């Protein structure tokens, strides 16, 4: 793998994981109220509530994972020029007189 590819995958993956965690938490807050209501009002056993909590994960990931990757790509493309602006002035300058044009 090239260095640039590893950099891009690393940046996208880290931001996508953060976005997935945040979006999944937002989806769970809606469902958490229903699960807690089931436990409190209907006195459902706690293992059943935990099982319901984990059964929501696949449905939540179908929504949150694509959204998180999209946000990570937008973040990367938005911040990329800021990171390269400091590298380019330090790059060695090529001298055109060393090249011959015949």
Shape: elongated
Instruction: Report the total helices.
Output: 3
Give the overall average pLDDT.
Answer: 79
The N- to C-terminal Cα distance equals: 37 Å
Q: Round the Cα radius of gyration to an integer and report it.
A: 24 Å
Category by helix and strand content: mainly alpha
* N-to-C series of helices and strands: HHH
Uncertain segments? none
Beta-strand content: under 5%
Largest sheet: none
Please provide the count of β strands.
Answer: 0
How many structurally independent domains?
A: 1
Folded structure, characterized:
The protein has one domain (3-79). Helices cover 76% and strands 0% of the residues. It has three helices and no strands. It starts with a helix and ends in an 18-residue tail after the last helix.
